[in-house]
Write a structure and sequence with these properties.
450 residues; alpha/beta; Rossmann fold; seven-stranded parallel sheet; 44% helix
């Protein structure tokens, strides 16, 4: 995957800063790709340790291999154990304190902090663990579209890690840049002061920031990304999957009639619903994080089942409208109008069959799929609720898929079928059929032989 022109420039800037930088690009502009691009261009910066939220651990693993060919290992659980040596080790903030002592012995050259605003509190266990690890590494890359969530005081921990000499004293930083105020209860640093000076220091010494509006000319009209999410109960899914695979192994080719195909369809359908259920907590976390990091933006979320949509409506921290097959035409128009024409609601929840065509949702530039459909064209139709004629902004299409499940297999097949469809519609040689189900069954059969 080749970086875009602005991404190449920013990777070079990170190199000029000797691999100690904050990548503060807005969400969707490729901070992960830039960090990986830096590691590929600078092999002496390996091995590297990536610390990130749990919901994107497998996304890092996937992107590392796909984008730059870096092999990686993902750490799980609070009980440190042996793990293979890889160029990239990936761990989430929540378990890092339990692994810190083991990781300090590895000899990492680079620390990558994704969503680095999660270490804004110096007294937090995760911050102390990050600081101990980062102190011994020559390169530190801090990534966040919102490194400053509320006030300048939140920046100090990361700045101290990047440049401990320049930002040695927390109190000195607070008095200069954080609107220091003496109260009966002591000093208060909830404000901001000398902000222009702070901005100059950041941009001259360590921070690269881009906004979407600054780089639209470099972006394609539609960008797709797949985010693998962890399951809340891996054992439950494995048990159900093993039962299905055992049944599938017993089927001989001569039994592949319409009846057995219907049974296969039902069993795969059950696995897909189970995967969606077990990744729901992670999906909600991802959506809430997006809403928090993009306070002025709206989000369109598609799923297939009412239970899934209802759970999202209850658990996502934003006002929303929900359209499924039970919503009448008049109510549907009112809901779409409210989403399109006012600042509230911020979240559109839709069944991709009931709301995936015939409506315009251009108030949002980001579409998220929490479930998949068998038919690639259905997904494409849903994407295009935001990507319409006359739209000048890039539309981001994010697929949240359950890691290492039948859903991930289905997603890969759908992506391939979408490419075939594009060749049919836009010209070019076409090879292969469009039967998603048969290919999914074949992929599961191949899994049995591995």
């Amino acid at each position: 995957m080749k970086p875009l022109p602005f991404q190449k420039e920013d990777i070079l800037q990170v190199e000029r800063w000797s691999g100690r930088a904050i990548l503060a690009h807005e969400m969707g502009l490729g901070k992960t790709l830039m960090a990986l691009g830096y590691l590929r261009r600078n092999p002496e910066a390996l091995p590297a340790l990536v610390v990130c939220p749990a919901i994107i651990k497998y996304h890092w693993q996937q992107e590392a291999m796909k984008a730059v060919g870096l092999d990686s290992v993902v750490l799980e659980g609070r009980k440190p154990s042996w793990f293979p040596s890889k160029p990239l080790t990936i761990i989430n903030y929540d378990i890092l304190p339990w692994w810190a002592n083991r990781l300090r012995k590895i000899g990492f050259k680079t620390l990558v902090l994704d969503e680095c605003h999660r270490v804004k509190s110096p007294s937090a266990k995760r911050t102390k663990a990050v600081t101990k690890l980062g102190r011994q590494m020559p390169h530190v890359l801090a990534l966040s579209g919102t490194p400053l969530m509320n006030k300048p005081m939140e920046l100090w921990t990361v700045l101290n890690l990047l440049h401990p000499k320049q930002f040695k004293s927390r109190m000195k930083f607070a008095h200069k840049f954080c609107g220091a105020e003496w109260t009966p209860w002591g000093w208060k640093f909830d404000g901001a002061s000398h902000t222009e000076k702070l901005h100059t220091i950041l941009t001259e010494h360590c921070m690269v920031r881009r906004r979407k509006m600054d780089v639209l000319k470099d972006l394609p009209p539609k960008l797709r990304q797949v985010i693998p999410l962890p399951l809340s109960n891996r054992a439950e899914y494995n048990h159900a999957c093993d039962d299905f695979l055992g049944w599938l192994e017993e089927q001989s080719p001569d039994k592949a009639n319409r009846a057995s195909k219907a049974i296969q369809m039902a069993r795969i359908g059950y696995l897909l619903r189970l995967a969606a259920k077990l990744k729901l907590r992670s999906a909600v976390d991802w959506i809430n994080e997006w809403l928090e990091q993009n306070p002025g933006d709206k989000l369109v979320v598609f799923a297939n089942h009412r239970k899934c949509l209802s759970a999202l409506e209850r658990k996502c921290r934003a006002s929303s409208v929900l359209i499924d097959g039970s919503v009448s035409g008049r109510d549907r128009n009112k809901m779409v109008g409210a989403f399109q024409n006012s600042s509230d609601p911020r979240l559109f929840l839709g069944n991709m069959h009931a709301a995936g065509e015939g409506i315009t949702l251009t108030a949002a530039h980001h579409v998220v799929f929490v479930e998949l459909d068998w038919v690639p064209a259905v997904l494409r139709q849903a994407e295009d609720r935001c990507h319409r004629i006359g739209t000048t902004d890039t539309v981001w299409c994010t697929y949240l898929v359950a890691h290492d499940t039948v859903e991930e297999s289905l997603c890969r097949i759908i992506q391939k079928k979408q490419r075939v469809m594009s060749e049919v519609l836009d010209g070019g040689p076409v090879q292969g059929d469009l039967n998603v189900f048969d290919e999914l069954v074949s992929s599961l059969n191949r899994k049995l032989t591995l």
